[in-house]
């Protein structure tokens, strides 16, 4: 009987067998005589041991109905660890005539588990959407109509963007905002689209202190815009500060009602710190972090992407035009900080993993430090208003740094929005020459040598994936060497753990310049990184011709595949590929057709509301008739939109892709 996957090797002195608690390997019920039990060879330095040893048990007839085999991790100095057990029904095993097999270790339900506590539970909501993406030409009428509305702005007759916002529920507003933003970003109209939303929001806002505070389409679109266009900028400004907080792991607390003196010791004095000492030390730590962040932000004007600077400039100007009085002097600054600080920097501080600033979530102590730092940033972003100070009076020790930070932030915003048209165009051209990375980070590349991959042959390199190439370098700043063109990728899949004795390994199957199939094996640091890399590689190659339908999850070692033992190296594969299983992230490559399809799908869902709105708007015309232009097409943009939706419906019905494909295009979303 082999060791089950995930088992651990025994530890202890060589040649000694551990005592088998409860018989180790024995019978449940009357004891059975054992010719050989417990023990086996020790496999060191491996979490995935393979023993392949034979154990024989002599069972007296009628003495036992079940055979219980337990697995233990034996320690010389500490308590032996129970790993699990398997109970076999001897009669059923004989009747099945099964000679060998793998059996999963089960917990011992008979042991008292009351002291283990409740581990809680996680509930997931899974949505599977099957989207058929039509050829680009089918979406052109929809894209052109929406682009025309954005170019016309508030002067347009139809106000389709406003109608879309009006008919969009709060639950799906973020998805719609992201799809529209990416569509217009691909058309070079992201700034114009956001400017239109700014004007629409300003037109219905009378109180300056409520500006951009709701979850409007403008707010949601700006959140998506900053993630798509400004994430690398955020990493450069915020990354070093976040890393320092994680590395220091200091106990920080400003709220006297939450101070726990026992958690902090004063090593030099051999006594616990007083509450006042904890509060003062915490204030010093937070002031240092806040000052470092504001200083980094002040120096980052030129590092901010041109399209982000231009958008903030437009926002600043629109708000100043809407609220020109002296009493509203800070309103344009607060409008910028409401997005930059409150919806971008502060959320990234509180949850750095969600913004790819850290690989793991913070522990409780670090999380509290990050939360207090985020509150301080919010106070600076609110321009240190009396209402902000009164909300949490115990933040008072940070006030000197906050007041200084307000002046720094205003100076930074003034410089940020002071960008000339020529400079903006020049920066945009320079940025357009570089393909932005879809994914980057360290990976271990496994080398192949002789008859197959060597478990110890790997090297850590920094990889960068764009829509043009998968490149690598010794360090993030060294010269990059192209490894694979995304157009040559045929599959990106996981590798079985047993193939290398390591987890989180993926394989990239591609064609070289000579058209020959090649495979490269890359190991990630954790399972999250593995899934993110697989998703990114699949997204840049999803439209490639010749994608594989099957693959080998193992490796070809010696003369056979480790997964299915087939001896033909060119065998098609024993498992299906998952080229369309991807994550939906802010750094996804722009896919104009997919975004147009998702917008169409949303508009189709709210079509009844759009029709009702059209009936209201056309009530003034004769019998509700629709005005048409010279070519017979409706002049009313809303009527045009309804016609476009009907045409796309017909295109979907008549498209061959509407029939069930061999591999449907699905969007899988997990929500906690």
Automatic annotation (TrEMBL):
Domain PH: 436-542
CDD domains with a match to the protein in the record: PH_CAPRI (cd13372), RasGAP_RASA4 (cd05395)
InterPro entries: C2_dom, C2_domain_sf, PH-like_dom_sf, PH_domain, Ras_GTPase, RASA4_PH, RasGAP_CS, RasGAP_dom
Domain C2 as annotated: residue spans: 1-103
Keywords: Calcium, GTPase activation, Metal-binding, Repeat, Zinc, Zinc-finger
Entry keyword Metal-binding: yes
Protein name as annotated: Ras GTPase-activating protein 4B isoform X5
Organism expressing this protein natively: Panthera pardus
